[in-house]
Design goal:
Number of domains of chain A: 2
CATH class of the largest domain in chain A: Mainly Alpha
Distance between the termini of chain B: 42 Å
Helix content of chain B: 25-40%
Number of domains of chain B: 1
Structural class of chain B: alpha+beta
Shape of chain A: globular
Order of helices and strands of chain A: HHHHHHHHHHH
Largest sheet of chain B: 4 strands, mixed
Strand content of chain A: under 5%
Oligomer: heterodimer
CATH architecture of the largest domain in chain A: Orthogonal Bundle
Strand content of chain B: 25-35%
Number of helices of chain A: 11
Largest interface: A-B, 55 and 40 residues
Number of strands of chain A: 0
Largest sheet of chain A: none
Chain lengths: 191, 182
């Protein structure tokens, strides 16, 4: 698969979409509890993937890892702006496509990922760069190397950020978040 | 009955189909340092030779330093956000197109359009080693910025002890100016 194909060939895009739609929905559900916003963000992730497909290079990681990087950008952008601004600029309104059955199904998926959203408050005080690596590793199960590729940074940088994030969580942890943070699994970081 | 996933696929296929028949977009990009980049074509050649001799030498600005290493990499250290234009000019000489914006504390840049690309990640450093006055350093490869603009957001606090910066690499699409918002 080349990025150029999914950006310009509908059939190639459909193969890519079918392979990744559930992964993207789970990625979003680990971060967003509102099914309508989740639908908007899912649409936005694939639109961003289409727009940036030309820049994909197979030598820089798997398509799935690349898509996680795109999804991270979209969700991070959402955190920085108000939801209505997202909707005002959207070319496809995901929520408009939802039926009542879809909402029920999305809510079930969102409930299944509640463990991940419980961890997010513990990460609020982390610098964005550290948080990005930690999220991809601890919430999405990427290896530090795959997280580095998804974020376009060097593996050594990802390992350093992961190490710092772990240290910060241990030293600045709010007591009520301790049980949630105890569930974070972070691979051992070696320099 | 079609599901959300089916409906979304249909709409996305339509988007891709439109791109299939449309001519390739001519991306509009802000080049605040376009003049500097043009001049840089000559400087880059000279810089390659010079850097081998003076690599590691630090510029004298109290706000930042930019060092071009013999390996072609550029290290930028920002001590505070007081000279954004100076940073842009110096990075342009080193082959990196940059846009520096000082953003009020507790506010974020919103850009419409955003210009999200593969390398559109955001990263930041902070006082991880306990010495804010030492500034924050990043090492970059100018070759990564042939089609990209480095966005630097600085937030300087009242006591000027340091600066928190966010970097983003926008490789595709156009992006709008920074609109600071809470």
């Amino acid at each position: 698969m080349t990025g150029l194909e999914i950006g310009r060939d509908p059939d190639a895009f459909e193969v890519f979409y079918r392979e990744h739609i559930e992964k993207v929905q789970r990625f979003v559900a680990r971060r967003v509890a509102d099914p309508h916003l989740a639908a908007d963000l899912t649409a936005e992730v694939f639109l961003a993937a289409i727009d940036s497909a030309d820049s994909y290079r197979s030598g820089r990681g798997t398509p799935t890892g690349w898509l996680y990087g795109v999804a991270h950008n979209v969700v991070s952008a959402e955190r920085r702006r108000k939801a209505r601004e997202l909707r005002a600029n959207q070319r496809i309104s995901g929520r408009r496509l939802l039926t009542a059955d879809d909402v029920t199904r999305l809510e079930e998926r969102i409930d299944a990922e509640a463990w991940a959203r419980d961890l997010l408050p513990a990460m609020d005080e982390l610098p964005p760069g550290e948080r990005a690596v930690l999220e991809l590793v601890a919430l999405d199960g990427l290896s530090p190397q795959d997280a580095a590729r998804a974020l376009g940074i060097r593996p050594a940088t990802a390992r350093v950020r992961l190490h710092r994030a772990r240290t910060r969580l241990q030293t600045r942890l709010q007591p009520d978040l301790a049980p949630a943070v105890d569930r974070i699994t972070i691979p051992e970081v070696t320099s | 009955m079609k599901t959300f996933e089916d409906e979304l696929l249909a709409e996305l296929r339509a988007v891709v189909s439109e791109r299939e028949v449309a001519p390739r977009r001519s991306f509009v990009r802000r080049h605040r340092v376009a003049v500097g980049l043009a001049a840089c074509a000559t400087l880059a050649v000279a810089g390659t030779v010079t850097a081998a001799v003076v690599g590691g030498e630090r510029t004298t600005s109290p706000a930042y330093s930019v060092t071009e290493g013999p390996d072609g990499k550029v290290t930028i250290t920002i001590y505070n956000g007081e000279d954004g234009e100076g940073i842009e000019r110096r990075l342009a000489q080193a082959g990196v197109t940059a846009e520096v914006t000082e953003v009020p504390v507790n506010q974020s840049c919103v850009r419409t359009p955003e210009g999200i690309g593969f390398d559109g990640y955001w990263s930041s450093t902070d006082n991880w080693d306990g010495h804010q006055a030492h500034g924050h350093s990043w090492t970059l490869k100018p070759a990564d910025f042939v089609d990209a603009t480095l966005l630097i957001e600085t937030r300087s606090y009242g006591d000027r002890r340091g600066v928190v910066s966010e970097f983003g690499f926008v490789k595709t699409g156009s992006f709008g100016p920074c609109s600071a918002t809470e």
